[in-house]
Design brief:
This protein is α/β, with parallel strands linked by helices and 268 residues long. Strand 5, helix 7 and strand 6 form a beta-alpha-beta unit. It folds into two domains: 94 residues, 60s Ribosomal Protein L30, Chain: A (2-Layer Sandwich), CATH 3.30.1330.30; 157 residues, Alpha/beta knot (3-Layer(aba) Sandwich). The strands form two sheets. Strands 7-6-5-10-8-11-9 form a seven-stranded parallel β-sheet, sandwiched between helices. A four-stranded mixed β-sheet has the order 1-4-2-3.
């Protein structure tokens, strides 16, 4: 039986708490997941569980937590029994989660991405808002799309804000990242149609037939996609708006595009 951790000064707890900062997530290529249900979703998505910090007292009373501990042991994760007070040090919640886990990050190299007739990917050029990114990941999973490709200086999909917004959907989609140069070179040889959003030389987003593998390109809300990515697109589409608003929130526009394209592919 492992010793029960009772202090936030414990070395392993201190290292876990550091994962709230991006530089440590990047350095270790790992991230935190809070809550029994969210951890179970990670395991169901075949993510690699590294450590499980859990409320030792509740594990003797709650069947769900006890089952999670057993599953974590079968996955050879490091089990760290602790107290409610230590778990409370990870957040400002009055009622802290009964378990917090460290998972390994998952990134796919561009040259390993699967592209076929049903493939729909969304590439995001330098997204800045982790809440938007998490919501886009959630929409991607809900629409049945393949995954998300992040270009250049993107916010972190493994940040607590993005994880909360994705509500576990992060474990159901593939993630890739690349520089703009790398992405354009790969896409040019991929056989996929790159569909960007914008006003110049654009058509209604409901007009194209979207046959073959599709990659949807989205930029920032203020600037859209950059001229270089715009020039690489085989099609440019726009989302018509009837009111006075001249732009949509990035996550909403991305959801509209994702469902339009995937619905076409799965309408039969």
């Amino acid at each position: 039986m492992a010793e029960i951790i009772s202090s936030l000064a414990n070395g392993k707890v201190k290292n876990m708490r550091k994962l709230r900062e991006r530089k440590y997530r990047d350095r270790t290529q790992s991230h935190l997941v809070e809550g029994v249900r969210a951890i179970e979703e990670g395991l169901a998505g075949q993510a690699h569980l590294v450590q499980l910090l859990y409320d030792h007292a509740q594990a003797t009373q709650q069947s769900e937590l006890a089952a999670l501990v057993k599953t974590a042991r079968s996955h050879h994760a490091e089990l760290l029994p602790t107290t409610r007070e230590v778990l409370g040090g990870f957040s400002s919640r009055d009622n802290p989660h009964a378990a917090i886990a460290v998972f390994a990050q998952r990134w796919q190299p561009l040259n390993t991405l699967t592209l076929d007739e049903k493939s729909v990917w969304i590439t995001l050029e330098s997204p800045r808002d982790p809440g938007n990114l998490g919501t886009i990941i959630r929409s991607c999973e809900a629409a049945g799309a393949s995954g998300v490709i992040l270009i250049d200086h993107a916010c972190d999909p493994y940040s607590p804000e993005a994880m909360r917004a994705s509500t576990g959907a992060l474990f159901g989609v593939s993630l890739a990242r690349a520089s703009l140069d790398e992405f354009i070179e790969w896409q040019t040889n991929s056989g996929a149609t790159l569909v960007g959003t914008g006003l110049e030389r654009s058509t209604d987003y409901r007009a194209p037939d979207y046959t073959g593998p599709i990659i949807i390109a989205m930029g920032t809300e203020r600037d859209g996609i950059t001229p270089r990515l715009h020039a690489a697109c085989g099609q440019i589409v726009r989302i018509p708006m009837r009111g006075n608003t001249d732009s949509l929130n990035l996550s909403i526009a991305s959801a509209l595009m994702l469902f339009e394209v995937t619905n076409r592919k799965y309408q039969d």
